[in-house]
């Protein structure tokens, strides 16, 4: 015959398991880091692209501190991608592909969300040449960066620090 004292260790384990289950967030509630969201946007860009080669992240412009911790709030982003030697049909992730010598470089700006379940991005990329830019091309690059900064500033003004 089992006594209450004999069943006590099982009761403690079930209590610990319950507490552990409450402490660990469900997979749908997990959040991407800013860098992971940008890499997901690059992968999405590659999937939608009709170009023959994959693109890989070349440079990520510095992220401004965000006052809004809601992962579903769009975060402004600006980055540069460069063409790789890998064909778009490859199964390799872009991070494993070497950059193509004299490959096409694109400046991208837009927004990403960090929510893993509904991660979303709205990115526009424009082709540029990084080396030996002429003054007209450099002006276009500067304008694209300005637009990216304005998008970023718009969202930071829309959701100012300290508001819930």
Structure description:
The chain has 164 residues and is α+β, with helices and mostly antiparallel strands. It has one domain (30-158): Nuclear Transport Factor 2, Chain: A. The protein has helices at residues 4-23, 34-48, 135-158, and strands spanning 53-60, 75-87, 105-112, 121-128. It has a four-stranded antiparallel β-sheet, sandwiched between helices. Strand 3 and strand 4 form a beta hairpin.
Element layout with pairings:
Blueprint lengths: L3 H20 L10 H15 L4 E8 L14 E13 L17 E8 L8 E8 L6 H24 L6
Antiparallel strand pairs: 1-2, 2-3, 3-4
CATH topology: Nuclear Transport Factor 2, Chain: A
Domains (count) = 1
Distance between the termini: 57 Å
CATH class: Alpha Beta
The whole-number mean of residue pLDDT values reads: 76
Q: Give the overall shape, derived from the CA principal axes.
A: flat
Largest beta sheet, briefly?
Answer: 4 strands, antiparallel
- Order of the strands making up the biggest sheet: 1-2-3-4
Helix fraction bin: 25-40%
SS element count, helices: 3
H/E topology pattern: HHEEEEH
Radius of gyration: 23 Å
Count every beta strand, where a strand is a DSSP E run of 2 or more residues.
Answer: 4
The CATH architecture assignment turns out to be: Roll
Class based on secondary structure composition and strand pairing: alpha+beta
Poorly predicted regions: 15-20
**Strand percent estimate:** 15-25%
């Amino acid at each position: 015959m089992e006594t209450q004292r004999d069943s006590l260790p099982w009761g403690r384990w079930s209590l610990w398991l319950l507490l552990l289950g409450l402490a660990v967030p469900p997979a749908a509630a997990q959040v991407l880091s800013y860098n992971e969201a940008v890499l997901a946007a690059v992968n999405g860009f590659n999937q939608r692209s009709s170009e023959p080669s994959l693109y890989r992240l070349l440079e990520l412009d510095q992220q401004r501190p965000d006052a809004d911790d809601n992962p579903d709030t769009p975060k402004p982003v600006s980055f540069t991608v460069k063409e790789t030697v890998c064909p778009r049909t490859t199964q390799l992730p872009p991070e494993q592909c070497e950059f193509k010598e004299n490959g096409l470089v694109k400046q991208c700006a837009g927004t990403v969300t960090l929510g893993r379940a509904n991660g979303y991005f709205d990115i526009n990329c424009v082709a540029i040449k990084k080396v030996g830019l002429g003054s007209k091309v450099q002006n276009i690059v500067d304008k694209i960066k300005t637009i990216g900064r304005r998008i970023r500033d718009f969202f930071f003004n829309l959701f100012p620090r300290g508001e819930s």
